[in-house]
Amino acid sequence: MQASLAFKQEQLSVPHHPLPFQAQFPSHMMTISETRASNSGGEMTRSMAKLLIVDDDERICRLIEKVADKMHIVSECVNEASNAHVFDVRGRTGLVLLDLNMPEVDGVEVLRRLAAAGCEAEVCLMSGTAKEVLESARRLGDELGLAMIEPASKPMELTILQGLLRPLQVATKSRNPTADELAVALECGEMDVHFQPKVSLSTGKTTGYEALARWHSSLLGDVPPSTFIPLAVEAGLMGELTRVVVQKSLASIEPWWGDASLCVNYSPVLFEDLEYPDRLEQWTRAAGIDPDRVMLEITESEAMRDPVRYIDILVRFRLKGFHLSIDDFGTGFSSMQHLYELPFEELKIDRSFISKLKDDADARVIVKAMVELARGLGLHSLAEGVEDAETAKILQAIGCQGVQGYHYTRALPVEALCAWETQRVKDPVEGVVQFPSDDLNRAGSN
Questions:
Q1: CA distances from 45 to 65, 85, 113 (A)
Q2: Among the three residues 121, 145, 173, which one is the final residue of a domain in this structure?
Q3: Taking Cα atoms as reference points, which of 173, 34, 159, 148 lies closest to residue 96?
Q4: What is the pLDDT of residues 247-275, one digit of tens each?
């Protein structure tokens, strides 16, 4: 790499350049999204990295990437212009660290192409060349309409580099994920599953574990379900998200579960796919699990939106051996006829009613009516959102059969779930009866 670079007057002009900037990635530096695109044979997926490093010195690239990784910033590096993998920066945001002195395509040409591509990222020039040359190149970037920031001289101090990257940390953690980022997370295994127990109020036994998706993004940190589930629906990724949750959940079933069921939320978006029951049965049997161990939870508001249409797929699930639960009951528009006609086996009372039980007599009347309705229709009644012993005792008194909520435990990864089961045998949760001896032996022996 040369120590200096002389600019000719014509290089500082702004020529017409209709082609977007395309930089080439060495195969060993391809990102997840690029690997996915090249393997699929389709167009490349827009990168989710917020930092692009353009430098022909591979050692510098690796150093900057290491610092960025420690700051939890996803980065990509371009250091060779002869490879086949193309990266497109059109509309890119974030930060571009650009070496001004490169042998094949110098930094001035890169600036032109960035501008022609409509790059919206901030651009920081890096070079060991004279300060006046760096400043001239920065002014050129300004004229081209790029968001140029103060150039950085080489060698760059660590504190200066960290200062350049720090705004990316803040911006990354304060924004919502994109559909591409969610797709990559589903493909690369970032989506995890935690389990929240359902507890019987008559025996104290765990009757099932509800599988709940959890996403810890390497780029964004913890992304709440209230953010990524609507995104999955909007982006057409709900089928893939359900597949990942189902397969990971099935693989998590251990002997210490006993006869407890696996409970999975099933999005009504998937009712459009009449073959989904077949796929779900295939995944279940491939994991060595009988469909009779699996309960699908479907929200009341969606299930009742078009019950005549949905009865087809619900009946198919029951015929294959799966169990069905109507979730968030009390928030939708169920009629007695619909509850009678649809093949549900469990009725989950929405937390909005349960949270008021201690202080609201009307809420107790409504919940008692729901419990009696479930009993009359032959459905198992379960209250979700139970957060204290007093609420559990009220539910026990009015005849509710099962409970779920933070009074017992939040959703846990499977390893912590096993520890929780063992601990609660020794120290039972207030608000449920003592464990029978067979449960003690089952949980305490693992």
A1: 21, 12, 20
A2: 173
A3: 148
A4: 999 999 999 999 999 999 998 888 888 88
